[in-house]
Design goal:
This protein is α/β, with parallel strands linked by helices. The chain has helices at about 35-40, 50-60, 65-75, 95-105, 110-120, 130-140, 175-185, 215-220, 250-260, 265-275, 285-300, 335-340; strands at about 1-5, 10-15, 15-20, 25-30, 80, 120-125, 145-150, 190, 200-205, 225-230, 235-240, 310-315, 320-325. Helix 6 links the parallel strand 6 (about 120-125) and strand 7 (about 145-150). It comes from Sanguibacter gelidistatuariae. This is Molybdopterin or thiamine biosynthesis adenylyltransferase.
Length: about 350
């Protein structure tokens, strides 16, 4: 048994240690003798000791092995100890810090295996302006190994900036430019491999209003997908749709129509306006929303429920402070039946 990688062992006062600082798992051990505290501090650091090491060292430090076993059992019950060594990252991987961070939350504490699973995954990104590029770059940095890019529009001067697009990319197809940027930064990526490959997650970036018609196939085929909508003054990250399990775009559209009967007419006008003049992707909101979107995708790939499954995160300019809004499945949508048809 060993302490989860990355956790700190800190002195609070004589006889009291704090293990970890995050409120989700931080634990305080009190009533410790100086010798017990000295042994427990060795659980962290550049060459951390294991629980077995501490038990072997008890006799030489004047610590009762039963007492140390009791302390270690408490840390184990709190989820701070894990079994065995962590797996190794692939040679050349740049996701070492992501693996260290994942070790704090992964059930078995093996962050390297979390990153290895991401490396086997493929994510499709539809819409590769500033926001889509931030999202894709964040996913690649976190260890995702395969991407399918879809955006036939050309890079504009206003796309240059956050996300990695540069002046030399202006005029190229966005999907081509995205492959150049990410392929140059992460040479081991699988880009566009397998034209008929079904991605693990699809991210669709819409302008002004999300169009449920563009996600019908994903619903029928049961493909998990994240919707991101760039609007005139904010970006909406979500919903993350798990077909048949969480609210879809039709659910949100129907719910909004319940609140505002004029919404369908307004929605159709927004679609037309966005086709002529897309909304601006302001730097800070694009960066924040892109990173939040990537976090939702990583949650799904890591086996966790994304926060936007049944919700949206609204990121408004100019403060770019995220706000969560929950949405239920609409009783008249029928999306459970639609998604089920694809697996019938």
């Amino acid at each position: 048994m060993k302490l989860r990688p990355g956790l700190r062992v800190l002195d609070r006062d004589p006889g009291t240690l704090q293990i970890g600082v995050d409120q989700r798992w931080a634990t305080v051990l009190s009533g410790l003798t100086p010798a017990e505290a000295t042994l427990l501090r060795t659980l962290a650091g550049p060459a951390p000791a294991t629980g077995e090491d501490l038990l072997r060292r008890c006799a030489g430090r004047g610590v009762a092995s039963a007492r140390m076993a009791e302390l270690l059992a408490g840390l184990d019950r709190d989820g701070l100890l894990i079994e065995g060594p962590s797996g190794a990252l692939p040679v050349g991987s740049g996701a070492g810090d992501d693996a260290r961070a994942a070790a704090c939350t992964a059930p078995d504490g093996d962050g390297a295996q979390v990153v290895a699973a991401r490396r086997r995954a493929t994510v499709a990104v539809v819409g590769l302006g500033r926001l889509g590029m931030v999202l894709a770059d964040t996913l690649a940095s976190a260890g995702v190994g395969g991407f399918l890019f879809d955006d036939a529009r050309r890079v504009r001067a206003c796309d240059v900036g956050v996300g990695g697009l540069r002046e030399r990319h202006v005029g190229l197809l966005r999907s081509q430019a995205a492959a150049q940027v990410l392929g140059g930064t992460y040479p081991a990526l699988r880009l566009g491999a397998g034209a008929h490959e079904v991605p693990d997650v699809v991210v669709v970036v819409f302008d002004e209003v999300a169009d449920s018609l563009r996600t019908v196939r994903l619903m029928v085929e049961g493909v998990a997908h994240l919707v991101v909508t760039v609007r005139e003054g904010d970006v909406v990250v979500g919903p993350f749709v798990l077909p048949g399990r969480t609210p879809c775009l039709n659910c949100l559209d129907a719910g909004r129509t319940d609140l505002d009967p004029a919404w369908p007419r307004v929605r159709d006008q927004l679609k037309e306006a966005a086709a002529l003049v897309p909304p601006a992707q302001e730097s800070s909101t694009a960066a924040v929303a892109g990173a939040l979107g990537a976090a939702q995708v990583l949650a799904q790939l890591d086996g966790r429920l994304p926060a936007t499954a049944g919700a949206c995160i609204e990121v408004s300019a100019p403060d770019a402070v995220p706000r969560l809004r929950e949405w239920p499945m609409h009783p008249e949508c029928g999306c459970i039946d639609v998604s089920g048809a694809g697996h019938g």
